[in-house]
Write a structure and sequence with these properties.
The chain is mainly beta. The chain has one domain: Pnp Oxidase, Chain A, CATH 2.30.110.10. Helices cover 14% and strands 43% of the residues. The protein is built from three helices and ten strands. A seven-stranded antiparallel β-sheet has the order 3-2-6-7-8-5-4. The protein has a three-stranded antiparallel β-sheet with strand order 1-9-10, with no helix packed on it. Strand 9 and strand 10 form a beta hairpin. It is globular. The model has no long low-confidence stretch (mean pLDDT 91).
């Protein structure tokens, strides 16, 4: 085990200064949709196409993601701060879906409409990292949003358009 040199609060204070993209990870667990806002989405590899993100182990989505293995990601666009807040809950109740604009998709985890981009994939690996699990996902589909769509970022505890 690695000994902590700084406190979590000290680390958080510094990391808040690093702008991070905002995305919503979703799953379809037996017909029940669940989603969670993440600010840790990164591209890991182009060959094969892999992405990664971290989820707190006490988040409602954590076990659902492990069970289903399939996921969708909506990379939020400027003006979607309300969706980031809506899906930011990490424990039950899982975010409600009423009045949430979705893309027209026949099956699979839901994707949010008007996003800056969308991904679909499967969990390829899990790594325990402190109080989170880092999920590595193999990307099976990737689609950018409309040209000129500005992404939503999180910086110093506030949402901003890039």
């Amino acid at each position: 085990m690695i000994a902590a040199v700084v406190s979590g609060d000290e680390l958080r204070a510094v990391m808040r200064r690093v702008p991070a993209g905002v995305a919503v990870v979703t799953v379809d667990a037996g017909g029940q949709a669940a989603g969670l806002t993440v600010a840790s989405l990164i591209s890991l590899s182009l060959e094969p196409p892999l992405i990664g993100f971290a989820v707190r182990r006490d988040a409602a989505l954590h076990e659902l993601l492990r069970e289903t293995g399939e996921l969708a990601i909506s990379i939020l666009a400027a003006g979607q701060e309300h969706l980031a807040q809506h899906f930011a809950r990490g424990v039950p109740p899982i975010a409600l879906w009423e009045r949430i604009p979705l893309r027209d998709e026949a099956e699979g985890a839901p994707q949010l409409a008007a996003a800056a981009g969308w991904l679909r994939g499967r969990v390829a690996r899990e790594l325990e990292t402190g109080d989170h699990t880092f999920f590595v996902a193999a990307v099976e589909a990737a689609e950018p949003g409309p040209p000129g769509t500005r992404p939503l970022v999180l910086h110093d505890q506030a949402y901003a358009a890039l």
